[in-house]
Design a protein that fits this description.
Layout: E1 11-15, H1 22-32, E2 37-40, H2 43-49, H3 61-82, E3 87-91, H4 97-100, H5 109-112, H6 117-121, E4 126-130, H7 151-165, E5 171-174, H8 180-228
Parallel strand pairs: 1-3, 1-4, 2-3, 4-5
Amino acid sequence: LQSVGNGIPHRIVITGGPAGGKSTFADLLHRECHETVVLVPEAATLLFSGGFPRPTQANSTVYQQRAIYYVQLNLEDMMLKENPHRVILCDRGTVDGAVYWPKDSPISFFDEMGTSLEEEFARYDGVIFFESAAVGGLDISSGNRERTETIEQAKTLDQGLFEVWSKHPNFFHVPHQASFLRKIQLGLRTYREIVEQLSRQVATSRTLHAAAAEAAADATTEAIGQVATPKLSTSMDHTV
């Protein structure tokens, strides 16, 4: 995997419900492929572990999600700026907040952030969705103290995130597995497939661009030649 995607600044998001293995997968991929991959950590975990308070009232969630969105946005853009030749691997993406947004809010998540689903999708070249272990009724306990969801809450969030992210044109689904190792292996194969696909698209685009540039240069050369070489008249003007 170390050589996959070398020199191509793709942005890929790892998402899915709680206890899907996203952070473990992203951290593993980053450690094994640090020369070609840079990791954008989960904004929510950064905020909560740093002391950002969790809302105690439902209508306070808007402040939480607004903070997470802008931290995520700026983290991604900074990493891309500082690592123009590496794959930007995002532990969750800006779209996730739409699922956590209060359902009874008078304004939608995207309107509040001054954006749209289409604009946010355009930020990401690919999406790998890690289905929550809760979907299979598996244990979702972990060492992450910031994860507070029950199994039912995790399943609901997983379904909501799937419904939104599956609309992305380059969406890949990694279903839950009884074996976590098997799930990680599926994730690695999926990552390779996405980056190789994106690399082929870039190569094709560069070829077409080069061909178009060559055709334009030929047309320009021909036009210049016609202007520089005036046509000689075949008739003669006789004066009597």
